[in-house]
Amino acid sequence: MRHPHQGAIATRIGRSLVALATIAAIPSAVAVRPALAGASPAYLDARLPVAERVSDLLGRMTLEEKVGQMTQAERGAIDGDRDQITSLALGSVLSGGGSVPADNTPSGWADMVDAYQSKALATRLKIPLLYGIDSVHGHNNLVGATVFPHNIGMGATRDPRLVRDEERITAIETKATGPQWVFAPCVCVSRDLRWGRTYESFGEDPRLVTEMAVGIEGFQGERKRDLATNRHVLATAKHYAGDGDTVFGSSTSGTYTIDQGVTVTDRKTFARIDLAPYVTAVHEYGVGSIMPSFSSVDWKEDGVGNPVKMSASTELLTEVLKKKIGFDGFLISDWEAIHQIPGDYATQVRTSVNAGMDMFMEPYSAPQFVRTLLAEVNAGRVKTSRIDDAVGRILKAKFELGLFEHPYTDRGLAKTIGSPEHRAVAREAVAKSQVLLKNSRGALPLRKDERIYVAGANADDIGNQAGGWTVTWQGSSGDIIPGTTILDGIEQNSSHVTYSEDASAPTSGSDVGVVVVGETPYAEGVGDVGNGHTLNLSDTDKANIDTVCSAIRTCVVLDVAGRPQIVTDQLSEMDAFVMSWLPGSEGAGVADVLFGKRAFTGRLPVSWPRSEGQEPINVGDRGYKPLFPYGYGLRTAAHHGH
Asked: What are the start-end ranges of the E strands in 196-351?
């Protein structure tokens, strides 16, 4: 709760700053366009070039209005007092993972976003709000949306067109409910499977990740003018840069072991592995925003031991990204990321703004952020030119999105959310993501007339197969979204199916056993190995494999997980082994390849370790001897008529 006197003090300071800023702004406003009595301001003229509109609007803004544009609050922090959007002149609001309206439906979302937007349009200059959300594998916070495989599965498809189609559908489903901006795609290069965000990466090879950056085109469209349609959203390439390349044990965030840790590297290697996808994101796809990582970088050139948080790195944010690579969009900080910069709050704010951060995700401290940045500018510690650069970048995105002309939600495509057409694309993605790692004695494809015994909780748990970032931040087990489970898919193909979650039902008479093993949902550092997680199979999963594979002549094992798990000791028991990743809402896509309706074509986007102790292991390493190498994947022919 705010101290009762703070508001009055802030208001007094604010008034004097407004007066100062207004006086300071008058010359530039006049220089841009002489004010004509009764004429509509130039920035509202959609026929003018975006740069001219930005310049005109900037010239009219007070310092307080500019700082407001640089501030992003969580909807949960402002929902009880939506007038904060107006009083702080907020530039953006976000929904964190699981931050949803009471009515979690397309209309519930759109009504909520539009209500916030009306508060932004009540400000003096009527600058519309940008609403951001983590649509990382579909519009995953919305119950009923099409939920795609997580990125690691999409990497296994080796199909950039499919990734572009996925993000095109995600953009349509997201925009129809209000948000115009997504914190996706993650173009991190995952170099250590112990990282809890491994499944958010397309793979360990920067070339593969760079190919999949075409997803940005799915989000934003092929041309700048596509952004203003109801089919596209502003994309965010994240997390710049090196978040998948941190050293195990280097994290200082709570009990995390690797997430938000330190990337220890030299500049040449960093450019080749960690920076490469961002160059493509900027040069080929004109990505509109980039989110710097929680992680730090520690350059070997100047001796290890002095890591710099990405949010504080002038070298990487301004010198490399904005100047050298030529990024002309805006930078959005990650969730309270600047709080990890050394020093008091004023130092954190000043350091990050001066390093090049443009908008600040300060979910629960937006008023404090505004006050602090105003004081820093007023004291001369942050230049107004830096503020103008930041705000100009943010306004550019808003003009390109057409928000000044159409600030409210276009609900015209809401009827397509979770449609059969959209789900068909997700089902194709699931099928193409399946990686066949072992197939002895022709175990796969299955025949419809075989009596199939299915075991394992992950066979019939849509929450587990969707993983983290589904309805809530961490995701959860159970029947949380509509769709088909892997068991549903198997039952659609065969009428001779017995399901026993714990393999306790009699196996006699079965021709084939299908054991579905894997992980339960987690997100970010919560899923780090060493933080209550391991790459090893659970005792229950091992027991299910032992029970079923010893009793039934043909035994098939599917792994539903966000990363490879250690199966070295169990592999000899299985006739077939399939990596199913986290398929999302369309589990029937797994059955499509099991029964030969589609061929197995997926290939590993990461190296599969023999043991947890072998991590990190990546293609190209010296002494490279994984259980299955990067790019491995057996193929089968499709048997249509099966």
From this structure: 236-240, 262-265, 289-292, 296-299, 308-309, 330-331
How far, in Å, CA of 438 to CA of 157, rounded? 18
Convert the pLDDT of each residue in 479-493 to its tens digit: 999 999 999 999 999
How big is the CA angle at 604 (ends 433 and 163), to the nearest 5 degrees? 40
Q: How many CA atoms lie within 13 A of 588 on its CB side?
A: 17
Of 64, 245, 334, 615, the active-site residue reads 334
Q: Could you read off the pLDDT of 269-284 as tens digits, one per residue?
A: 999 999 999 999 999 9
Residue type at 502 in one-letter notation: D
Q: What is the pLDDT of residues 439-489, one digit of tens each?
A: 999 999 999 999 999 999 999 999 999 999 999 999 999 999 999 999 999
Active-site residue flag, 573: no
Query: Is the link from the previous residue into 640 a cis peptide, with omega within 30 of 0?
Result: no
Angle, to 10 degrees, between the axis of helix 384-400 and the axis of helix 345-355?
70
Catalytic residue among 56, 167, 274, 524: 524
Spatial neighbors of 259 by CB under 8 A, at least 6 apart, are: 195, 196, 197, 243, 246, 251, 253, 294, 524, 525, 528
**Rounded (5°) CA angle 499-503-507:** 75
Between CA 487 and CA 455 the distance in angstroms is 9
Active-site annotation holds for 204: no
The sign of the CA dihedral 381, 383, 387, 390 is negative
Q: Is the pTM of this model over 0.90?
A: yes
- Comparing CA positions, the residue from 474, 479, 485 lying closest to residue 463 is 479
Phi and psi, residue 505, nearest 5°: -70, 150
Report the alpha-carbon distance of residue 403 to residue 44 in Å, rounded: 11
